[in-house]
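In this section we walk through a basic example: taking a raw amino acid sequence and producing a predicted 3D structure, encoded as discrete structure tokens. The instruction is simple. Fold the sequence below.
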Amino acid sequence: TRGTSEENTMAVYTVLDRKTVNNLVKDYGLGRLSTIEGIPVGSVNTHYYLESAKGKFVLRIDEVKNTTDAQREIDFLIFLRKNGFPCPRPIADKSGGNLQSYENKAVSIYRKLAGKDFSTAALTNDHIEKIGQTLARLHIIGQDYDKPIDNRFSFDRVRNAYQTLRGRIAGHLKHILHVLDDEIAHQDEYREEKLP
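The resulting token sequence is shown next.
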């Protein structure tokens, strides 16, 4: 169900009541939850902030990925953490699994990361440089990851979507088709195969 109240309009797409959250987290050993709050920022998934005597957590509902893709992402996060990369830590339930299901959506729980939010206006060149260094480190560590991850933004998917939609482009935009066609042809010929 999509959130309809004003506080849920941004990123709480799946609205959960306290009982449902408690049922979803019961096998994770979090103890009694003192706080359950929808997190009203983000773009694709629903997140809830959870707090108990055992710590602070984030419950995530994957609104787009299926269970297989959500598990692949969790496996990659576990790999990154084992290699010292600062990223969310998936919490395992009593059976050792990292996913639950709610209305056919993958649900996972993570320890809340320390840190603070920055608006883009508050970012400095030093922040941007650190972001670049962190992304470089992510790519270097990721080179040793040997499990395939399907990328919904991969070139093959973009090319296939473009070919499907090309004939339906509005008349007033048809003058840019040659630019898009040239870009697709260029990418087909020169794109490195190792890129996502």
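Looking at the output, two observations stand out. The beta strands are 33-38, 46-52, 55-61, 100-102, 105-111. The longest helix spans residues 125-142. In the next section we compare this with other chains.
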